[in-house]
Amino acid sequence: MISALPAFQTAIEDIDGVLVGPWRTPRQMLADQEYGGHASIHDDETAQKLGFKGGTIEGPTHFSQFGPLGFAVWGERWFAEGCLSVQYRAACYEGEQVRAFMTRPAPDQAQTEIWMERADGTEILRGTASVGAAHPLSAVQAKLEDLKSAGPWVILRDVEPGMRRPRITVRMDADTRMGRLYPFSLSDKLAVITEGSPWFGPQIAPPWGRAVIPLEMVSVLLNHLASEDPWTIHGPTVDLFTDQEITMIDGPLFVGEPYEIEREVVARSGTRRTEALWVKTTVYRRGDDQPVATMLLSTASLKDSYAEYEADLARLA
Q: Which CATH number characterizes residue 75's domain?
């Protein structure tokens, strides 16, 4: 057994060169999430109407289980320059057990493969973990480069790559609820997070002397105000994350520190059931122009959830 200390007390197995975390049961904290005036995919009734077993656990919740694996390989550098890049493959529900896997990289490798499985063997996500800038294309970046032109666009007809939003200030304090999209606080999350760490505070300070925002909560910090400055998306629709990458460039991000973020549409993609918007969010320290972190997120809108989809499609054609 390998013990990743001092950031984590998580016991990790090394099975034929693959680091394997313990079974965990992530908590569903978005049952009361609201956007666009309606419940989200994390609400049982809404999800069941669209063919899901129940309200899904938000994808970045699973990022925490990879923290001990990244730290076991790259130490403190994981917090400062780590990147998780994943494609979500299947939904996970309240009460289900999952565990994280990471292929142990060679000493000179800055990137490796990761995945997560449910107890029944279903793959929940797959992607890459890396540190620093010198590595091959990440899982999400590789997918983005291979996107083919799609359409016709109905839900996303008024959103185009290159559109930007001006900088806004964001901040995550320990006990402040993160709005309608995330109706809980960091303290609420830390009470149930799958991988706790003294580096997340508040009693024991990490090497930086300040409490670090867990990677799954970086997603919350960067996305919690999105509904207050939305893109022009036709709906209402029910949405879900399909691809996500969070990269620390000069991290980590700290609890209680104000940051500035700006968002840019980088792509649109579509399937038979969805139209997906790809947005890159860049994080800056206030008054500075050097990025400290980025998030690349693909959010898919379910066509079946938009009541006027077929009528709009016919009219636009």
A: 3.10.129.10
